[in-house]
Specification:
Strand content: under 5%
Oligomer: single chain
Order of helices and strands: HHHHEEEHHHHHHHHHHH
Distance between the termini: 58 Å
Number of helices: 15
């Protein structure tokens, strides 16, 4: 009898191990690993007596532990209204706590410091917003044509947008806006409502420009229009970044030989401008390989989203894809002088534990949802809309 029970227990453990490995999208994982590696190599090239490389290794290890742990969780409990309301309230409290207890770095109160670790609540809030919007739209997908749902969902996002913007953190605030806009679009909004959203956005922008934006924020926006107009002032970072990217040419200067970063012409080379640092060292060929890896990541997230067990899982995966794609576009855009410098990190590559852990939390939730996903792609229309088919 004991032998039989032991055999049954062993079979259960074996099935559990097999189920765990099947729940992980290993193509996604193996696409992320080279990006983590080149991020470490790039930030270590010019670190000197800094500890970016060592600390980032710790954050990567912790992120993977969290990722694999979350992949074993059944996240159907997130469909409950009470859980989503709690997530919204906690997120608002975290942002308010940032204003009260936050550490001020370079004029911005974005971090809550715990001594050895500075936590940035705006990173976590982005994933919270995806969960909130996924819950909201999944319950109302039949009547999504009603314009009121755009306004109500926008109100949730607006709370986060305002609290983040006042830190001030224009980059994260814009990410919040684009996550909301993207999820509204994939939820099935009509073209008429789309134009209405853009009209409202234009009015809001005019109000922000005239009454809210600080002079340095206006300068960043003007730099977007004409980045070389003030290369000694607001356009300095953008100019140095474009010089770094261009100087990489086809094959790059080689690891550790990026002069823009090494001679400190390029600020924040390990975070905001890590793509420019990478492009200078690895050149056009390295950039193409990097883009291919990110393309694989985006595609695998979309594939996993399209296999969601319900509209909630589908919309969460779509929102996660939008989050990563937006971060990617904004970071690359500001590094090559096409978008204003907003202090946006590049997923998996920029230095920092807060954003890295958050990224793996989002992916861990997606892998957990994958455990009970339908075996076939049953959201072809959503999949095609996301990838632009």
């Amino acid at each position: 009898m004991n032998a039989l029970l032991s055999q049954v227990a062993g079979d259960d453990r074996a099935r559990g191990i097999v189920g765990f490995f099947r729940s992980i999208d290993w193509i996604l994982v193996f696409a992320i690993l080279p990006i983590l590696a080149v991020g470490l190599i790039t930030m270590n090239s010019f670190a000197g007596d800094n500890t970016f490389f060592t600390k980032q290794l710790v954050w990567i290890a912790l992120s993977f532990i969290i990722f694999f742990s979350l992949s074993t969780v059944d996240f159907r409990f997130l469909r409950r209204t009470s859980v989503i309301v709690t997530i919204f309230v906690v997120s608002v409290l975290l942002l308010l706590a940032t204003h009260i207890f936050g550490s001020t770095i370079q004029g911005a109160e974005r971090w809550i410091s715990f001594g050895f670790f500075a936590f940035q609540p705006s990173d976590v809030v982005k994933v919270s917003l995806i969960l909130i919007l996924a819950k909201y739209f999944s319950r109302r997908h039949v009547e999504i044509a009603h314009f009121k749902h755009i306004l109500i969902s926008g109100a949730y996002a607006l709370v986060f947008f305002v609290l983040i913007f006042l830190q001030p953190d224009l980059g994260s605030a814009l990410i919040v806006f684009f996550v909301w806009l993207g999820m509204v679009l994939v939820s099935g909004i009509s073209k008429k409502h789309l134009f209405s959203v853009f009209g409202i956005g234009a009015v809001v922008f005019l109000v922000l420009w005239s009454s809210v934006f600080h002079e340095y924020q206006k300068a960043r926006i003007m730099t977007f229009i004409h980045p070389l107009a003030d290369i000694q002032g607001a356009g300095y970072n953008a100019y140095q970044s474009t010089v770094a990217v261009g100087s990489g040419q086809i094959l790059g200067k080689g690891v550790g030989y990026g002069t823009q970063s090494k001679l400190q012409f390029l600020p924040e080379y390990e975070t905001d401008f890590i793509f420019a640092s990478f492009a200078e060292e690895w050149g056009f060929i390295g950039v193409i390989i990097l883009f291919i890896l990110f393309g694989i990541i985006f595609y695998r997230i979309i594939v996993n989203a399209s296999m969601g067990a319900s509209n909630f899982e589908v919309l969460f995966g779509a929102g996660l894809a939008i989050l990563f794609i937006t971060h990617f576009i904004v970071h690359i855009g500001m590094n090559i002088g096409l978008l204003p410098v907003t202090g946006t990190t590049l997923p998996f590559m920029s230095y920092g534990g807060s954003h890295l852990i958050t990224e793996f939390v989002g992916l861990g939730i997606l892998m957990g949802m994958r455990r009970y996903a339908r075996p076939v792609v049953h959201r072809a229309s959503l999949h095609n809309e996301i990838v632009g088919v």
